[in-house]
Amino acid sequence: MADLQDELHTTTEVGDFDDLPEPLPEPFPVEPCAPAAAGTTPLERARTILEAYPVADGYNGLPWALRHLPWYDLEVGESAVDTDVPRLREGRVGALLWSLHLPEGLDGDRAVGATLEQLDLIKTVVRNHPEGLRLAHTAGQTTDVRNCGRISVLLGPAGAAALGDSLGILRSLYALGVRVLTLTGVTWASEAGLTRFGEEVLREMNRLGVLADLSGASADTIRRALAVSKAPVMCTRSAARALRPHPANLPDDLLAALGENKGLCMVPLTAEQTGPTVRDVADHLDHVREVAGAECVGLSGTYDVGTAHPQELGDASCYPHLIAELLRRGWPETDIALLTWGNVQRVLRGADFTAHATSQRREPSTAKISDLDG
Question: Per the UniProt entry, what is one GO biological process (predicted)?
Fold first, then answer.
């Protein structure tokens, strides 16, 4: 993450950062939980920790899955999907990002329209399940929702194709609540890296408070995004390529760069990316923590996307089993609290801080892709 004291490359210069009074927010403060009673099992201890620091899940595909159901009730329970309110509560999930990703092949106006339909569906689902779910857009709102006994739903990641190469559409999606955008699948964020227009998109995301998701992006795109972005970046579905050579998993050099820039690698609970057992997932978490640091690792359930999950992690209720495995491996409870809740809070606060600072010094961009990449 580029230093906030660096000069912004803006379409319209309206000031600089020399007078910023404070750095980006510090790591999320973690208070140790009460000591475990004698005879407490790792699973019981895991549930206690998760009561204090619930899971902030980095990716959930429920919105698209619900499109194919004629009827559902997520508060009572829904066996046709992996996610419902009872299982979220059993898994001690406090917040989750609901994906707006679309099937391959949708682009242009079709992608924009399908994304708007997804947003409408999500808001309808949340409105119809008020005892379990609440929309949230900021770290503070997720905490407020948790204190009210509800589960936060954050909107995103959306696919970059939803922009239609228009910064005006980016601002409209932000106004509708989108807070994460995946920088892949478009001409301005490709295997060759970010183009000049892609860099302008990222700067406008910083100004608004939209986080960049780099899972699936090329190495050149990731490196350039780390250099350009003033806010933390996320990889919402990336494990360690050193342990499993999946294309969305990150090699150690990129994990180290992500850690140096205070980004966040959210390890997915899928057999394809991490392996068939809960121990395999824990191996990836160990590796990412070792290479990137405890402040840069998170969890991504990746439920309801049509992929197989490791044993003992079949649906959203299963997070305590993973945390119990980490306790058996000697993870400090403070690191577990960062993994489940604190690191996502830090990144959300970082995006808000950057947006507040940047929006006072940068006008909304009027750049067009034809102007910068033509």
Answer: proteolysis
DSSP 207-259: HHTPEEE-TT--HHHHHHHHHH-SS--EETT--BTTTS--TTSBPHHHHHHHH
Task: Enter the pTM of the model.
Answer: 0.91
User: Residue 156 belongs to a domain with what CATH number?
Assistant: 3.20.20.140
Kindly tell me if the per-residue pLDDT of 153 is higher than 50: yes
Residue 27 lies in a domain: no
* 94 domain residue, yes or no: yes
Q: Which residue type is seen at 330?
A: G
Closest CA to 286 of 345, 328, 248: 328
d(CA 202, CA 204): 5
Q: Supply the range of the domain harboring residue 230.
A: 42-373
Q: How far is 88 from 316, CA to CA, in rounded Å?
A: 6
pLDDT score recorded for residue 19 = 40
| Residue 97, burial from CB neighbour count under 10 angstroms (0-12, 13-18, 19+) | buried
The partner residues of 300 in beta bridges, in order of sequence, read 268
Convert the pLDDT of each residue in 199-230 to its tens digit.
999 999 999 999 999 999 999 999 999 999 99
Q: Are 170 and 201 in contact (CB under 8 A)?
A: yes
Percentage of the residues of the chain whose pLDDT score is greater than 90: 85
Whether 23 is in a domain gets the answer no
Domain count for the chain, please give it.
1
Query: At residue 57, what are phi and psi to the nearest 5 degrees?
Result: -85, 125
Helix (H, G, I), strand (E, B) or coil at 262: coil
Residue 24 lies inside a defined structural domain of this protein: no
- Contact residues for 152 (Cβ-Cβ < 8 A; gap 6+): 94, 95, 96, 134, 135, 136, 141, 142, 145, 146
In order, the DSSP letters of 104-118 are TT--HHHHHHHHHHH
Contact 186, 160 (CB under 8 A): yes
Kindly list the strands in the beta sheet with 93-98, ordered across the sheet, starting from the edge strand earlier in the chain.
Answer: 133-135, 151-155, 93-98, 55-60, 297-300, 264-268, 234-235, 211-213, 180-182, 158-159
Number of other CB atoms surrounding residue 43 within 10 Å: 15
